[in-house]
């Protein structure tokens, strides 16, 4: 008989003991003498002695020892009993919160199972497509039952939902959060500034140029003699021409 038992399953131990005069037999688990109850019973027929536990729990895990003793001496034998918790359908402790990130920012999500169990796996999905570990995507379990998802650079097309799904042979559950991806913003910044010019009266024109970046594309204006001149842009390159 296998020594590994699920919670609330029956455990049965039988031994044959001989001796004269007839020995007194005692059972113990982890050196604690077993007391009979409605779920723990001992019996014997002739030389066969039995320990029966009708509803095992994890507290019964350990070393089962049977000792026989009479006026001549004593003898004992041991066996190991392992009681594993009964497998139950997974359940998350709480739901993930909806989140907002900007394009190219990192996304970090976490879920935790109420009861971590062997044989339970957690998978992550973005808009119904399973996410796989790889460059830019990290899926980890830093401690039993706690699962992390990290996407280093979020793309605009990832907007929608992030789903964590836990599964084992008994059942499954899922946790869904909305993902809102905003376009990145960046304040205007000049990467090329206008240069000073010296011009003669008979020059045909004077040209100033500048390069400015920003998200969204910034509006650019210049002042000359207290008048605003609005410039047309070619990509991020702006020109000011004085005829």
Number of domains: 3
Largest sheet: 5 strands, mixed
As laid out across the biggest beta sheet, the strand order is 1-8-7-3-4
Structural class based on helices, strands and sheet pairing: mainly beta
The number of helical elements comes to 0
H-E string: EEEEEEEEEEEEEEEEEEEEEE
CATH topology of the largest domain: Immunoglobulin-like
Relative helix content: under 10%
Low-confidence stretches: 1-7, 226-243
How many β-strand stretches?
Answer: 22
Globular, elongated, flat, extended or rod-shaped: what is the shape?
A: rod-shaped
State the separation between the terminal residues, measured CA to CA: 102 Å
Radius of gyration from CA coordinates: 38 Å
Mean pLDDT: 82
CATH architecture of the largest domain: Sandwich
How much of the polypeptide forms β-strand, as a percent range? over 45%
**CATH superfamily caption of the largest domain:** Immunoglobulins
CATH top level label of the largest domain: Mainly Beta
Outline the secondary-structure elements.
Layout lengths: L3 E3 L4 E6 L7 E6 L2 E2 L6 E6 L2 E6 L8 E8 L4 E11 L14 E4 L4 E6 L8 E6 L2 E2 L6 E7 L2 E6 L8 E9 L2 E12 L3 E7 L13 E10 L5 E4 L2 E4 L2 E2 L2 E6 L1
Parallel strand pairs: 1-8, 9-16
Antiparallel strand pairs: 2-6, 3-4, 3-7, 5-6, 7-8, 10-14, 11-12, 11-15, 13-14, 15-16, 17-18, 18-22, 19-20, 21-22
InterPro entries: Ig-like_dom_sf, Ig-like_fold, Ig_I-set, Ig_sub
Pfam family, one: I-set
Organism: Ancylostoma duodenale
Write up what this structure looks like.
It contains no helices and 22 strands. By secondary structure, it is an all-beta fold. The chain has 3 domains: 4-84, Immunoglobulin-like, CATH 2.60.40; 99-182, Sandwich (Immunoglobulin-like); 186-242, no CATH class. A 5-stranded mixed beta sheet has the order 1-8-7-3-4, with no helix packed on it. It is rod-shaped, with a radius of gyration of 38 Å. Residues 1-7 and 226-243 have low confidence and may be disordered. It holds the Pfam family I-set. The chain crosses the membrane at residues 220-242. This is Immunoglobulin I-set domain protein. Residues 4-84, 96-182 form the Immunoglobulin domain.
